[in-house]
Design a protein that fits this description.
This protein has six helices and no strands. With 183 residues, the protein is mostly helical. One fe (ii) ion binds next to helix 3.
Length: 183
């Protein structure tokens, strides 16, 4: 975690309750349950959409920091929308990805503990950044700096999540059959 954000320390209980629309948590088209490969694809697609948002917000934040550049309105609003979207994404992962991570192999519980810890830390970070965004005393340039730190951390977190929890072999639909052919 970047020093700027780590230095803030832990924040208290979450005051931030994102609007978890039922439709945002829709899983599939009536079939049940989702297969591990479908869950994997859904999470990876979400990550791509989140990366697009990060690119957009990064551009806005750079403009906000430029000494003589235009002061872009909307950085705080874009960042808040990103935090809401992330909260929904993480909620979806907690609900659908955790159960398949638990069942994937003999290391399921260890993996889920690590996954849950990562999400706990990310939520603390998001809560902290949200408070900064809402603080009217923070100049736009300072907010932009924190948003840029956040963007870098989120990119890192998503890459780590993909390598530790979203591998094709880990989230395969038929582990026994595949093992027979690959071992
Ligand atoms: Fe996650
Ligand atoms: Fe994720």
């Amino acid at each position: 975690m970047a020093p700027l954000l780590r230095a803030s320390g832990r924040v208290g209980p979450l005051a931030w309750e994102p609007d978890l629309h039922a439709e945002a948590l829709e899983t599939h088209d009536g079939r049940s349950p989702m297969r591990p490969s479908e869950i994997r694809r859904r999470v990876l697609a979400d990550h791509e959409e989140l990366r697009d948002r990060l690119n957009r917000i990064e551009r806005l934040a750079h403009r906000a920091r430029a000494p003589h550049g235009p002061s872009p309105s909307g950085l705080r609003g874009e960042a808040e929308a990103l935090l809401d979207r992330l909260a929904i994404h993480m909620h979806w992962e907690d609900r659908y990805l955790i159960p398949v991570l638990r069942e994937a192999d003999g290391w399921g519980e260890v993996r889920v503990d690590r996954f849950a810890r990562d999400h706990r830390e990310q939520r603390e970070l998001l809560e902290y950044v949200l408070r900064e965004l809402h603080d009217p005393r923070r100049p736009e340039g300072v907010v932009a700096g924190k948003v840029l730190d956040l963007v870098a951390l989120l990119r890192e977190d998503m890459a780590e999540e993909e390598s530790a929890f979203l591998g094709q072999r880990l989230l395969r639909d038929d582990p026994v059959a595949i093992d027979l052919f690959t071992s």
